Amino acid sequence: MHWINKLFMYSCVSLLAMAQDEPLHLCASGTVQLALSAVLSSPHVVKCASAVGISPESLVKGDRLTSAQVVAFRESPSCAAYHERMMETLQRIYPACVDSTSMVSTTKMGATTFAQRVKSLTS
After folding, report:
1. Of 4, 24, 38, 84, whose CA is between 20 and 30 Å from 15?
2. DSSP classification of residue 66
3. 76 near 114, Cβ under 8 Å?
4. Contacts of residue 113, Cβ cutoff 8 Å, sequence gap at least 6
5. Which residues form the signal peptide (predicted)?
6. Could you read off the pLDDT of 39-86 as tens digits, one per residue?
7. What angle do CA 1, 17, 13 make, to 5 degrees?
């Protein structure tokens, strides 16, 4: 077999293996929201929102932030703790599933780093 064909075959096998690790079913209605409800009522949310200068409701909804608010979010230990708890909670959803709102798996959502979260606030 020509080396290009082998490379293509190995690439396809690798992609198939990765795809099988990813859940293919949608989360039951409310799964992600229910899992995150305890995190959303944690003191970290209130402290993070206060540091950023918005209401906890706006923080949870993901309202747009100004550049100064993004900097405050990035520098706040409470915001980092809030983010970390959210990611840990998402990773504990079993079986992992695809959120019907974002169409992203709970596994992938739970793997979002704080730096990625901060970057998403600026885009």
Report:
1. 84
2. -
3. no
4. none
5. 1-19
6. 888 899 999 999 999 999 888 888 899 999 999 999 999 999 999 999
7. 10
Q: Tell the residue number behind the tokens 């209605």, with chain if given.
A: 29
pLDDT of the residue at 22: 59
* Token couple for 102: 């974002």
Residue with tokens 């730096």: 115
Residue type, 25: H
What SS3 string covers 73-116?
Answer: HHHCHHHHHHHHHHHHHHHCCCCCCECCCCCCEHHHHHCCCHHH
Domains of the chain: 30-122 (1.10.239)
What pTM did the predictor assign? 0.76
- CB within 8 A of 85, min separation 6: which ones? 39, 42, 44
Which of residues 22 and 37 earns the better pLDDT score? 37
User: Locate tokens 């703790």: which residue?
Assistant: 81
